[in-house]
Amino acid sequence: MRGTRILPTAILFAQVHLTIATRYPLYHRHLSYQPESFVPYGHVEITPPQALDTSSETSVLNSKESWNVSLDIAEAEDLQWEPESGDGRNESQAGMELGWYQIMLEDDGRELVGSTKACYLSTSIPNIHIHLSTIGKPISISLSSSHIPKNGSCPLINLPITSVRVKNQILKVILDYPIIVQEPKLSPPPNLDPFGLPIIPPPEKTFLQKYWMPLLGVGVFLVSQMADPDRGGGGSR
User: Fold this and answer.
1) Per-residue model confidence as pLDDT tens digits over 191-222
2) What is the pLDDT of residue 98?
3) What percent of the chain has pLDDT over 90?
4) Which N-terminal stretch is annotated as signal sequence (predicted)?
5) Edge to edge, what strands does the sheet with 173-176 contain?
6) Fewest C-beta atoms under 10 Å: which of 10, 101, 127, 129?
7) Which residue has the higher pLDDT, 233 or 22?
8) How far apart, in Å, are the Cα atoms of 217 and each of 56, 127, 206, 224?
């Protein structure tokens, strides 16, 4: 403990990376047979703890309660597209099923894209999940909604979805932290008897049971050495 207290301050800060809030731009688009370009969705700001130990794999897990995320949609642009007709199906239903809604996060030249069916937008804009690495770096994003049925089918409505108005929705960004599984402790398998049962090792011997013969020899030697001076003294007289 004393050695830890007297470590130089420079060494302590060498293992700790001081962090500040990081702002990432977001974009969205409707993807169909005629893909459109991404347009601004807003910015997401991720604020980690004031000090994050980047040398530890579990740093994100140990400090997840201190992470904050906020979404700024002041510069968001709404989406508008034409409904698509399908192959013999009801035109409105085909327009809902054809096409995807995508959100993209940019990070140092990387483009992380999450997608969901455009028909799910009939209930609400899905939540944005940002998946972090063990040091708090975005590695992927995904979109989720609690209104999606288990079979993944589109909801039945009268009119197809042809627009996304971001500022009219209640949006939520969720940070997903990595799950680090501890490595199992491996050991050699036990020896088995002919019946397939583990062989119980014999109980370990005590100290006296192990070394009684050497101890007996040492004792005899000491006794003989103690008796020799008396014999020698009696002969000299």
Assistant:
1) 888 888 888 888 888 888 888 888 888 888 88
2) 64
3) 16
4) 1-21
5) 138-144, 127-132, 173-176
6) 10
7) 22
8) 57, 82, 18, 11
Angle at 76 between CA 70 and CA 82, to 5 degrees: 135
Report domain extents, the chain: 14-176
Phi/psi for 89 (5° steps) reads -90, 170
* Euclidean distance between the first and the last CA atom of the chain, given in angstroms as a whole number: 67
Read off φ and ψ for residue 147, nearest 5 degrees: -95, 0
- 149: Cβ–Cβ under 8 A, 6 or more apart, which residues? 155
How far apart are alpha carbons 135 and 49 in whole angstroms?
Answer: 11
pLDDT at 92: 42
Closest CA to 27 of 140, 136, 103, 127: 103
DSSP assignment of the chain, as one string? -HHHHTS-HHHHHHT-EE---EEEEEEEEEESSSPPPPEEEEEEEEE--SEE-TT-TTHHHHTGGG-EEEEE-TT---EE------SSS-HHHHHHHS-EEEEEEEETTEEEEEEEEGGGGGT-PPEEEEEE-TTS-EEEEEEE-TTS-TT-PPP--SS---EE-GGGS---EEEE---PPPPP---PPPPB-TTSPBPPPPPPPPHHHHHHHHHHHHHHHHHHHHHHHHHHHHHH-
pTM for this model (two decimals):
0.61
Q: In the 3-class helix/strand/coil scheme, how is 190-208 assigned residue by residue? A: CCECCCCCECCCCCCCCHH
The residue to which tokens 């993807």 are assigned? 31
Q: What's the rounded Cα separation, in Å, for the pair 91 and 83? A: 8
Q: Is the pLDDT of residue 236 over 60?
A: no
**Cα–Cα distance measured from residue 37 to residue 53, given in angstroms and rounded to the nearest whole number:** 39
